[in-house]
Amino acid sequence: MATARSGSGIVVKPSADVAVNGGRKHAGDVASRGGSDDAQRAGERPYRYPREQVGVLAIVLFANALNVTMLFPFVGFMVEDLGMTHDRAELGFYAGWIGSAFMVGRTCTSFAWGTWSDKHGRRPVLLLGLVSIVVTAAAFGLSSSFAMAIVARLIAGLCNAIVGTAKTCASEMTSKADQGRAMVWITGCWGLGIIVGPAVGGMLARPASQYPSAFAADGVFARYPYLLPNLVTSAVAVVATLACWLWFDETL
Questions:
Q1: Rounded CA separation 94/97 (Å)
Q2: Distance between CA atoms of residues 164 and 69, nearest Å
Q3: Taking a C-beta distance cutoff of 8 angstroms, is the pair 238, 133 a contact?
Q4: Helix, strand or coil, per DSSP, at residue 3
Q5: Considering only 86-95, 124-133, 216-225, which range has the smallest mean pLDDT?
Q6: How far apart are CA 190 and CA 201, in angstroms?
Q7: Residue 20: its H or E element
Q8: Are the C-beta atoms of 28 and 14 separated by less than 8 Å?
Q9: Domains of the chain by start residue, with CATH
Q10: What pLDDT score does 111 carry?
Q11: pLDDT exceeds 70 at position 40
């Protein structure tokens, strides 16, 4: 603190630096997240870690990761069942087309979605991506041709900018001190979805063959042997969509 004399007495002037936790911190930083008297007088709420918001983002990224990896255990069998080829040596080639279609779509539109979200908000981009998962996962499970499977996954990718948008939201709604904490949660749930996705695909594909006592040999899951894991993916995406719609606030 600095002092100066005036005609009426001693005037105390704040210095450029203030002591914080035994160290020095610039006075301008005191008015950052965490809530200052000025912010409270202006009617702004003091900052607190947005636990609920981070939780919603974690659910969103889990649903997205589930959709990305769920198909890998069965996509080779799917290519064969769709009649694209019966040559086992060629299955991997055609399976690669289906497996990469989602990422091709994402690559084509990721920059555009980023620019759009900077102007119109993050929340609509998250909701669009989730709704596209609900629809395209079901369509993929109902695919009756190789082309239909490719188109379903391609559209899913074209409409999906969830990962980058979610990370941007996490950085915008947390203080610098809490950004790492938020990123751990949302990327951790992304990683969990990467693990659970193949398990869901492997366990639930061809259910009429794997679990004949539970699924009829002439039922819908026998006709569409890869529908069940896609329906599970759609259901998880529905939960994530509702959570985002009801409880997630715009961060832009």
A1: 5
A2: 18
A3: no
A4: strand
A5: 86-95
A6: 17
A7: strand 17-20
A8: no
A9: 2-30 (no CATH), 51-247 (1.20.1250.20)
A10: 96
A11: no
